[in-house]
Amino acid sequence: MGRSKGAQAPTPTPTSRRELGRDGLVRVSEYRCPLEKGAPTEPEQFTSTSITLVRSGVFGFRSERGPQLLTAGFAMLANPGQQYEISHEHAGGDRCIIFHIDEALLEEAVGSAPRGAPRRYFARSVLPPLPRVEALRHLAEQRLSENGPALGLEELGLALAASIGAQLGRAPRSEVPRDSRTARDSVQAALAEIEHGSADELRLGDLARVAGLSPYHFLRVFKRETGVTPHRFLTQVRVRRAIELLRDTSRPVTEIALDVGFGDLSNFINTFRREVGCSPARFRKTTPEDWAATVLATRAG
């Protein structure tokens, strides 16, 4: 691993960093270190908060807690102002995925920084490989490869921060409980916003503002009241509208995919097949009787 981990060092080489996610409460980038084994080291400093997950390679990381060897699966946790050094004593080159999470959102997920340590969200700089963290990383990269909604990426980034906070013994920031009627009213406002703007790029922060809640607590209340996450509900709305257009119009499948909010045709087809059980083209051609028989046969099996 070279310099500029989590956007904290001088300008990286032109091909070392690539933005994967969109701007929002959670952004994701890929870092490929070009340095060879034995490359010189020098002190560096994190300037922003980030969670870096090592995908491949081996490198040394030295912080105030001493040196550690990192390889695939390890997590490196950055606090603003923290000093560190990266070394390549055993191998050269590595690949990492970096999650940049809005600090206000991060504070909700892992709690406020301890007294006397402003903007100190992580008590440790390194975590060993954890299956839950690795699963979230894999899902986030899958979401990015599918060009899925930013809302889904934000949910995964928040879940990643909460999982790491739990490993560090940090509790999320508490919020004054709302009565069930007020909570339902808040969620209803968000549901209406999703229904109205399902073809647009909806973001967690925007939906939370509509609901009058912070993003972290909005996610929890929305899931509690509806049984699904906002991203899941958005997907269902888009697929539901695609079903109507497939059966009621002769418009091309690609046109329908873009109109209901999917970024590309392959993502639409994969999502439709997962949600409905067949491809959009097959659903369009299937008669009601054949479809009913297919569903009954699936349930019987």
Automatic annotation (TrEMBL):
Q: Kindly give the InterPro entries that the UniProt entry links to this protein.
A: AraC_XylS_family_regulators, Homeodomain-like_sf, HTH_AraC, HTH_AraC-typ_CS, Tscrpt_reg_AraC-type_HTH
Tell me the GO molecular function terms: DNA-binding transcription factor activity; sequence-specific DNA binding
Keyword terms? DNA-binding, Transcription, Transcription regulation
Ranges where the HTH araC/xylS-type domain occurs? 188-286
Q: Which PROSITE patterns match?
A: HTH_ARAC_FAMILY_1, HTH_ARAC_FAMILY_2
* Region Disordered: start-end pairs: 1-22
Transcription regulation: is it a keyword of this entry?
yes
- Supply the SUPFAM superfamilies for this chain: Homeodomain-like (SSF46689)
Q: Which PANTHER family match?
A: HTH-TYPE TRANSCRIPTIONAL ACTIVATOR RHAS-RELATED, TRANSCRIPTIONAL REGULATORY PROTEIN
Q: What is this protein called?
A: Helix-turn-helix transcriptional regulator
Organism listed in the record: Pyxidicoccus fallax
Taxonomic classification, please? Bacteria, Pseudomonadati, Myxococcota, Myxococcia, Myxococcales
